[in-house]
Amino acid sequence: MCGIVAYIGEKEAYPIVIKGLKRLEYRGYDSAGIALLDNGKINQYKRQGKVANLEEFALGKNCKGHAGIGHTRWATHGAPNDVNAHPHSSTDGRITLIHNGIIENYDSLREELISRGYKFQSETDTEVLVHLIDDIQKNEKVSIAEAVRLALHSVVGAYAIVVLSEDNPNQLVAARKSSPLVVGIGNEGDFYLASDATPIVEYTNQVVYLEDEEIAVVDLNEGLKIFSIGNQEVTPYIQELEMQLEALEKGGYEHFMLKEIYEQPRSITDCFRGRLNATEGWVSLGGVKDYEQKMVNAQRIIMVACGTSWHACLVGEYLFEDLARINVEVEYASEFRYRNPIINENGVLKYLIEKRV
Length: 357
Description:
- Helix 3 (106-115) crosses helix 4 and helix 4 packs across helix 5.
- The protein has helices spanning 13-23, 51-58, 106-115, 126-140, 144-152, 245-248, 256-272, 286-289, 292-296, 307-324, 333-336, and strands spanning 3-8, 31-38, 41-48, 67-73, 88-89, 95-100, 159-165, 171-177, 182-185, 191-194, 206-209, 214-219, 223-228, 233-234, 239-240, 276-277, 282-283, 300-306, 327-332, 347-353.
- An eight-stranded antiparallel beta sheet has the order 3-2-4-1-10-9-11-15, covered by helices on one side. The chain has a seven-stranded antiparallel beta sheet with strand order 5-6-7-8-12-13-14, with helices on one face.
- It folds into two domains: 3-242, Glutamine Phosphoribosylpyrophosphate, subunit 1, domain 1 (4-Layer Sandwich), CATH 3.60.20.10; 274-353, Rossmann fold (3-Layer(aba) Sandwich).
- Helix content is 29%, strand content 29%.
């Protein structure tokens, strides 16, 4: 599960981004990287392995800059190594980008860009996107934000991206589709971006969660602007974070997994609170109420999930079949979308996607 952290403002970006990447280590990753904009020049450092490897590599190098983007990668396209690690840059280094998700039509886009003279350094689908943005900006003579918008029209797949440009030192451009991205609004006119709220809750509790196919431009002079991929301006919906910083720390445990194991009794109690009353003998599940009769009459249930939710579905499969005597199938969401499944009126399809936002 890849992670994104970015910052732009008056403070030094490096310590904020590095600390944010460490807060995302619970996700698992195989490489990490950072890009910082200092005096109109982007400096980029990336390394296979832990964030600690990246810190060691960056030691003694120019890590100054008030705008920066960072990434932890879980390899999909290409081996886990220094070259395939994010960020990825345009040929001239003007544009640098980090990306979560998978661009499904990257191969055809790559071939088209190669035919136009572009050379690729990595095996990733992400490098395709940064070259595509660069190509559009140069040929259409548009702003970096508009180049991102136009490029995304050609992309098939999932993405959460943040773009840093030497031509726009006071600006970051971000976009999402089927991969979460949150914008944090600081108290000093600065902005934070991340794949979930854990890296930014220390600095602000005012956030905007981008919706699918929305593009955000954070500008130190003009503030936050959001528009759709169809170029329709969107009014930002600012929410207040309720999570506490202490809940994000390891709490004295050596690993996050160990912390989560010991927190299970409390987590289960919290999940049942307000939904189950053993004394009075009732269960109330708001999300199920509207479909209660449909589920009772179902002859087949298909559970579609990813990550930890997939494991939960495996447990649910045994429980449904044992207690309700209903046939249950559990499918990987990443594979289910490419199938042509048999679903009829007597069945129920339930999506359970693990979310980290």
